[in-house]
From TrEMBL:
Gene3D superfamilies: 1.25.40.80, DNA Cyclobutane Dipyrimidine Photolyase, subunit A, domain 3, HUPs. Belongs to the DNA photolyase family. The record marks W299, W358, W381 as: Electron transfer via tryptophanyl radical. PANTHER family: CRYPTOCHROME (PTHR11455), CRYPTOCHROME CIRCADIAN CLOCK 5 ISOFORM X1 (PTHR11455:SF9). It comes from Qipengyuania soli. This is Deoxyribodipyrimidine photo-lyase. Residues 1-128 form the Photolyase/cryptochrome alpha/beta domain. GO terms for biological process: nucleobase-containing compound metabolic process; response to light stimulus; response to stress. The keyword Protease does not apply.
Length: 462
């Protein structure tokens, strides 16, 4: 009897345990349901919708080469899938587990909605180890990264990746599918995705090619990862987020590298697992501060006044007057991605220099990143803002100009802030007002911002 594979952020054929199990059990009906209502304030942002469109298109083409296809439906996922199971006579819906609270809920609802004789079969496969499975000696999940990472490393490598299914049998007749174009996931007017089309190749094949390239580069990651002017990080984040490649595939491809670069990189992959462990324990973590300061005394809230709103907009548009921050925010807008070092500098600038509530930054990143990830984004924003379970301290305030020089971002600034392209390496990090031309003056001086942030923090702590 037919088997449904419910695809979400796991848009690949290799090392896809749900797909693998379905293909062994009968004819396969791969399905993606666009369920816009379920995630509330974390419904897909614009950049995510763009990526999703191309990733579905790419997977559809790959399935086509196996004489299969992907069925697209829109609506409440549990309802849609339960009726599709009836319609097709499928006995089992196979799916990878996802840990966002709305997906966990959907899995429970689907189990309840399925008619007798049909079941939901869930598998793990998007993380190195199933979130929640690595525990302390007393059986509790870890809250802090360092001991979590140590425990993870003791359990590595992850299981061997599964191959692509050899054959994918088609059902006798295909259920109807929406046309992808009718979902309007791509921007039309204005078409803001030109920079993204140039920067990215989307899909499983592109993810594997990038990984092959990265295998030759990973050795220099320990030194290169902090240099935004260089292409010295993997840029696998959207591929991992959308599940076009699994972390087990990444691990096994690189594990024999034995370089310092690989050791540092492995710990970054573990950060990704760590973030899922955090949202598994605290499902609202990307929405609520974990530490309880008196936040009304800490943040300037853009909803409370025009001036604060306009500060937020200057940050969003890359017009703060701090070249490295603006280069980052413009890279984000153009490409849907930002270098990690600059994400830290730009995020810290919003919460500490501008004292704007981290949630406004989290939401902007959510809308504009192609790798926007509920766990990774929430955990990193709370880490930067000093409000999280495992945080950088609020009083450690990053100095954007020093960071810019230290990590040699002149080339990066030239690329994304072309108004400053003619300035020398020495002056581009912090141009004199007379050398800025049309580029804005600094919104606030570093010293003044630092003092304001420390005073607000002292008051909020009480
Ligand atoms: P690499 O340096 O090559 O790292 C390899 C992989 O490890 C990444 O692809 C990613 O999956 C994982 N990883 C690396 N750093 C982290 C980290 N700090 N936390 C969790 N996983 C990590 N990453 C996202 O995937 N989605 C987000 O929404 C996101 N939001 C962020 C928000 C802020 C404020 C900050 C400071 C960081 C955020 N990150 C996020 C983490 C990190 O910046 C990106 O994962 C990284 O820049 C992606 O580029 P890369 O693939 O070249 O990373």
């Amino acid at each position: 009897s037919p088997q449904i594979v419910w695809l979400r952020r796991d848009l690949r054929l290799a090392d896809q345990p749900a797909f693998h199990a379905a293909a062994k059990s009968g004819p396969v009906i791969p399905v993606h349901v666009l369920d816009d209502g379920r995630a509330g304030d974390h419904a897909y942002g614009g950049a995510s919708r763009w990526w999703l469109h191309h990733s579905l298109e790419s997977l559809g083409a790959t399935l086509g080469s196996h004489h299969s296809r992907i069925v697209l439906r829109r609506g409440d996922a549990p309802q849609v899938l339960a009726s599709l199971a009836e319609e097709t006579g499928a006995t089992c819906i196979h799916a990878l587990r996802h840990y966002e609270p709305w997906w966990k809920e959907a899995e429970d609802e689907l189990r309840d909605a399925l008619p007798d004789g049909r079941e939901l079969c869930l598998y793990d496969g998007n993380y190195l180890l199933p979130p929640g499975s690595v525990t302390t000696g007393s059986g509790d999940p870890y809250k802090i990264y360092t001991p979590f990472s140590k425990a993870m490393l003791e359990r590595m490598p992850p299981r061997e990746p599964l191959p692509e299914p050899d054959t994918i049998h088609s059902p006798e007749s295909w259920p109807e599918s929406d046309a992808l174009a009718d979902w309007s996931l791509l921007p039309t007017r204005p078409d803001w995705a030109g920079g993204m089309r140039e920067f990215w190749e989307v899909g499983e094949t592109a993810a594997c090619e990038r990984l092959n390239w990265w295998a030759d580069e990973v050795a220099s990651y320990d030194n290169g990862r902090n240099l935004p002017s260089e292409d010295m990080t993997s840029r696998l984040s959207p591929h991992l987020h959308w599940g076009e490649i699994s972390p087990a595939q990444v691990w096994h491809k690189l594990k024999d590298k034995r370089s310092e670069g690989w050791r540092v990189f492995a710990k970054e992959l573990i950060w990704r697992d760590y973030a899922q462990n955090v949202i598994d324990q605290f499902p609202d973590y990307p929405r609520d501060s974990y530490r309880t300061y008196d936040e009304r005394k800490l943040w300037r809230n853009p909803k409370m006044g025009h001036l604060i709103q306009s500060d937020l907009e200057r940050w969003q548009r890359g017009m703060t007057g701090y070249p490295v921050v603006d280069a980052g925010m413009r890279q984000l807008w153009q490409t849907g991605w930002m270098h990690n070092r600059v994400r830290m500098i730009a995020a810290s600038f919003l919460v500490k220099h501008l004292l704007i509530d981290w949630r406004f930054g989290e939401q902007w990143f959510w809308d504009t990143l192609v790798d926007a990830d509920y766990g990774n984004n929430g955990v990193n924003w709370q880490w930067i803002s000093g409000t999280g379970v495992d945080s950088n301290m609020f009083v450690r305030i990053m100095a954007p100009l020093t960071q810019s020089e230290k990590f040699d971002s002149a080339g990066y600034i030239r690329e994304y802030v072309p108004e400053l392209a003619k300035l020398s390496d020495a002056e581009i990090h912090d141009p004199a007002d007379s050398r800025r031309g049309a580029y804005p003056k600094k919104m606030i001086g570093h010293k003044e911002a630092r003092e304001r942030a420390l005073a607000a923090y002292a008051e909020a702590k009480g």
